[in-house]
Amino acid sequence: MLPGGYTFIHLAFWPIVALVALGTNFIPIVLSAGVGVLVLESLKK
Hints:
Layout: H1 6-24, H2 27-44
């Protein structure tokens, strides 16, 4: 495994996914981010 294991994979993988997604289509990223914020807010209540 790489140093940091699972966390390291996420740190390396997600920025690449984000860059590809931003390059191809920005709107789904904005929508999914909005949904994520709503979920976090509902969990805090």
